[in-house]
Amino acid sequence: MWDSLLEMRIVDDAFLFTWYIVSGVLVLYLLAKQWSIRWFLVAFLVLFVGALIGGAVVWVAVNVLNAFGGPVIDEVWLWTPAAFAAIGLAIFNLWGSRWWRKIIAVLAVGVFALTAVFAINAAYGINRTLGALLHISTADPITPVPPPTDPATPAPEGPLYSWWQAPEDLPATGVLGEVEGGIPNDVSGFPARPAQLYLPPAALVENAPRLPLVIFMMGQPGDPDGSFIAETLEEYQADHAGLAPIALIVDQLSDPSLDPLCLDTEMGNVETYVMQDVVPWARANLNVQAEPRFWTVGGYSNGGQCATSFGAKYPEVFGNILSISGEEFPGADDTSSTLVNVFGGNQAAYDAAKPANIMAEKAPYPDSWAVFTVGSEDGRYAEGVERNAAAAEQAGMQVSVLIVDGAGHLVDALVGGLHEGFGVLYPRLELAPPPEPEVEPAE
């Protein structure tokens, strides 16, 4: 029962409208305490003051405390003052009222707060279940399928798509779960939350072929939630006879409120964790191809910055980068604090950690692909994405910049970026034939 509650979808219209209706009815009830002009004037004054307080709280959190790492979406500015206004009305109802109105008013405070939380969460769209909102994983354990120690027959020569034929026992869908036992952090000591693993149908059959690997990281605040990339790869495998990369979704935060910058810092040795714990574990425990061209490091937002950094630093491991609405460099949302607190005021050290400078230093990249995606309405990250893409191209990478039409920096950018990005990467990973060359029309 507990798992069923945590798996409840809280972004669906039916769920949200229920809360809107209940909140609306409660507001009307609280307004109807008395039927006098004086009461209504005072009640509306309470609503107005509550809304002002709510707006001030958001303003201070965004502009003074930088609690959200930058600007917030319009829904935060709408729903927070609305919730404060309604809560103020509920508190005002506690005076001079009967006991049952007091109970309803107290309950209404919780309803108004939750309605605002659910509405704002749905606008962002990343946390689709109650468990995700509470940062509680409900994924089932999954046991990795290791590479065979003595394959029955060697793989045919040539790209995988050219010789692969789906066997009769090919499952219709892949599986997503939480890595059973987690990925050991023996080298780094980084307290990562359990990784999730997606295995496509082609990985689940007898004598399965070695497949490409994607190591993916979500945004901050966030969790190693593999549902988004799994859904995208499910769409692709259905059109490619069960072929898709194996995807390993790892935690680069350790806690939703922290951003260790995908470096080795006092907040945790993330870089060591990914490169010296995760990468060796994947080689030993997953049936994946070994060559860098079949290894992709990807991520969304904060994870996109991590992907760009790791791909720039370690081309001998990751031949491909998939940065979805990625931040331009570590701590880009608060450079002054990052400079002081992480780099001790050493601007040269900070600059050396920026992907564009890393790429310029390590250039050329003879066989690296970089796919950058960003929403067409993302005014916050678009310029940084363009600068990183230009730096990657200057450093010799094969670069694609994909614009997700109509998307901002929300779930639409994540879903669209995954879909568009793998459209570019599938031929590179030899899961699909290369696109037909464009033919110039005859004059």
UniProtKB/TrEMBL annotation:
Q: What is this protein called?
A: Esterase
**Superkingdom to which the source organism belongs:** Bacteria
Q: What is the lineage of its organism?
A: Bacteria, Bacillati, Actinomycetota, Actinomycetes, Micrococcales
Q: Does this entry carry the keyword Membrane?
A: yes
Annotated TM spans:
14-32, 39-64, 76-96, 103-124
Output the SUPFAM superfamilies linked to this UniProt entry: alpha/beta-Hydrolases
Entry keyword Acyltransferase: no
Keywords, A to Z?
Membrane, Transmembrane, Transmembrane helix
- In its UniProt entry, the species of origin is given as Agromyces intestinalis
